[in-house]
Amino acid sequence: MTLFLTLLALLGHAFFWIGVGNRIHACGWRRWIVTGSANALAAVAAAAPPTVAYWYWGNYARLAEIVKFPADRSLGETLFAAYIVLCWIVAPLTLARLVVMRYRLRTPSVVRYHGRRRAAIDPHAVEFGVEETAHHFLTRLPRNEMLRLDVVDWTLDVPRLPRPLDGLSIAHLSDTHFTGPVGKAYFREVARVANALTPDLMFLTGDLVDEAACIDWIPDTLGQLRAKHGVFFILGNHDLRTGDVPKLRRLLTQCGLVDLGGRRRRIDVAGCPILLAGTERPWIVEPEDHSDAGGTGGWSGTAETRPFRIMLSHTPDQLAWAKSLDADLFLAGHTHGGQIRIPPLGAIFSPSLQGVKYIAGVFHSPPTIMHVTRGISSDIPLRWLCPPEVVKLTLRSI
Question: Which CATH superfamily hosts domain 111-397?
Answer without folding.
Answer: Metallo-dependent phosphatases (3.60.21.10)
